[in-house]
């Protein structure tokens, strides 16, 4: 069953972003998570902007809390670079298939598609199809000139009324039409 993903805490989610199943999305003050509008997210997505700090004798904090009455040294103060490479940004109109993990410091561009089972450790450009462990670009989603035009159009910022008026645009096969065809299909 598809549900809307909602903003909470250090996680912001755009308009009409949907997910199909269990998601673990964690954001922190130093490593926030931003997910754009009209994204389609499969089952078992994990977004983790923070890792365990491996520089100390014990990986997890239980030893430090229970034995010493204090937190893990890697958790005190600001997170170290070994714990996080920064927040995670997922653009608009992004498809993330089932069983995907996205790690800290990653940006996934508008219109990108991430294949099932991928572990995303590096940024993926807009309108690229990527998959694997580690995730890497496989191909462009559209011809380059079409991808550039799509980033200029930014349909995800349109009102629902304008989206309805542009049904012809949404029915175009963008992999095989010209930018002139796309422009001709648009209605203000």
Automatic annotation (TrEMBL):
Q: Which InterPro entries match?
A: Hexapep, Hexapep_transf_CS, Hexapeptide_acetyltransf, Trimer_LpxA-like_sf
Output the Gene Ontology terms for molecular function.
Answer: acyltransferase activity
Q: Name one Pfam family in it.
A: Hexapep
Keywords tagged on the record: Acyltransferase, Repeat, Transferase
The cross-references to CDD domains, in alphabetical order and at most eight, read: LbH_XAT (cd03349)
The record's section on PANTHER family has: SIALIC ACID SYNTHASE-RELATED
Q: What is the name of the protein in this document?
A: CatB-related O-acetyltransferase
